[in-house]
Amino acid sequence: MTNKTSFVERVPQPPENSIAWIPQPTQDGSFTFFSPEFGETFHSRQGARAEAFLKFAAATDLVARSHQPCLRLLDVCYGLGYNTAAALETIWAANPNCQIELHGLELDATVPQAAIALLESWSPKVQEALKAIAQDHHYQTPQLQAKLWIGDARQTIQQLAGFEADAIFFDPFSPRCCPQLWTVEFLRQVSKRLSPDGKLATYSRAAAVRSALLEVGLKIGTIPIGGDALNNLISDRPSSHEWSQGTVASFNGDRLCPLSQLEQEHLQTRASVPYRDANLSDAAEVILARHQQEQEQCQKESTSSWRRRWGIR
Ligand SMILES: C[S@@+](CC[C@H](N)C(=O)[O-])C[C@H]1O[C@@H](n2cnc3c(N)ncnc32)[C@H](O)[C@@H]1O
After folding, report:
1. Residue 54's domain is classified under what CATH number?
2. SS3 assignment for 5-50
3. Domain tally for the chain?
4. Whose CA is nearest to atom 11 of ligand 1?
5. What's the 78 CA to ligand 1 centre distance in angstroms?
6. DSSP at 183
C-alpha cells in the first residue's frame, strides 16, 4: 500500500513527538510540516522542494507547455504551496511572459499561512504570489490569476465546473491516511477538470490509485526511479517502494513512460481494488472498511504472492 514512508514516500512519525506546523528539515535542505491529524509529513523526507520539481512540475511537462501563451494549473491539496511554487518557477524560467491561471484546493488555511515563514528559497516574484495566496486566498497580476479554495476538496472542486487544467498536481496524504481523496468518485471529479491533452501527476504508485485512474478513463504512466536514486538505494533486491516514484495520467496517453512488467502485474492483484465513496461524503474509516471488505471478496492474486514473485521485501 502506498504511503509516504520510504525513499519515495513520506515518513510517518509518532504524533506525540510532533507539534503542528513546526518546520522539519528534509534531506535537500527544504522544510516540511508534520500533520498530527493524518500522521504523516507533508513531503518526502528525501526533499520537499525536490519532490515538487520532480514529481509534479517535471512530470507534467511544464517547460514544454510554458511556450503556450496561457497555462491553467490545478493544485489539489495545496498545503505549503510547494507544487505551485515549483510550477511557477519552472514556467517563468522558460517563458517569463507565460500567463497562468491557478486554482488550489486546501482543507486547512493555517497550513499555507504557516508556510509563509518558509518562502525564502523561492524567487521574489514567487514569494510574493505565495504570500498573497496564503493570506488573501486570491492573487491577481497580469501574469498570474490565482484562487485558493478552502474546504474539503470533494466539495470545493464542484466550484470549478468548466475549468480545464493543462496540469493537475494531485498530492493528498497517503491513501491509508486520507482515502477520501483517492476514490474513483473523487478522481472522476478531478479528471473532469483535466484538458484533453493535460497531465495529472501524483507521487503515488499504489495499484488502488492507478486502477481508479484507469476506471475514470485516463491512461497512466510511471514516474521512473532516477539513475542516481536507483544506484544509491537498490541493493541486492528491490524493497517495497523502489519500482516507481509516482504516476502520471492523461486522456491521450502521449509521452507517458510505460509501466514495467512488475507494475502491470501489480494492477492484477488485490492491491488494485480501488477506494469508493459514491456520495463524496463518507468518513475515512467508512471508506477503508468498504475497501477492506471488497478486497477480501476479490478473486485476484494476493499482493503478497506478487511480492514474493518479484522478490520485493
Ligand atoms: C501531503 S499535503 C500536500 C502538500 C502540498 N502539496 C505542498 O506542496 O506543500 C496534503 C494536504 O492536503 C490537505 N487536505 C487534507 N484533507 C483534505 C481535503 N479533504 N480537502 C482538501 N485538502 C485536504 C492537508 O491539509 C494538507 O495540506
Report:
1. 3.40.50.150
2. CCCCCCCCCCHHHCCCCCCEECCCCCEECEECCCCEECCCCCCHHH
3. 1
4. 77
5. 6
6. B
Q: Ligand 1, closest atom to CA 153?
A: 20
CA of 281 to the centre of ligand 1 (A): 17
Assigned domain for 3 exists: no
Q: Is residue 7 part of a domain?
A: no
Residues across the chain: 313
Q: Residues near 178 by Cβ (< 8 Å), separated by ≥ 6? A: 38, 172, 284
Burial of 257 (0-12, 13-18, 19+ CB in 10 A): middle
> From ligand 1's centre to the CA of 299, what distance in Å?
34
Residue ranges making up the domain that contains 100: 15-310
What distance in angstroms lies between residue 96's CA and the mean position of ligand 1's atoms? 29
Q: At what angle do helices 82-94 and 124-136 cross, to 10 degrees?
A: 140
- Compute the distance from residue 176 Cα to the ligand 1 centre, in Å: 14
Domain assignment present for 8: no
Nearest of 209, 225, 188, 216 to residue 266 by alpha carbon: 209
What atom in ligand 1 is closest to the CA of residue 79?
27
Phi and psi, residue 199, nearest 5° = -130, 140
pLDDT per position in the chain (313 positions), as tens?
A: 344 433 344 544 434 443 569 999 999 999 999 999 999 999 999 999 999 999 999 999 999 999 999 999 999 999 999 999 999 999 999 999 999 999 999 999 999 999 999 999 999 999 999 999 999 999 999 999 999 999 999 999 999 999 999 999 999 999 999 999 999 999 999 999 999 999 999 999 999 999 999 999 999 999 998 754 433 333 333 454 578 999 999 999 999 999 999 999 999 999 999 999 999 999 999 999 999 999 999 999 999 999 999 998 7
Is there a domain that residue 210 lies in? yes
Residues at CB less than 6 angstroms from ligand 1: 42, 52, 77-83, 105-108, 111, 152-153, 171-173, 178, 180-181
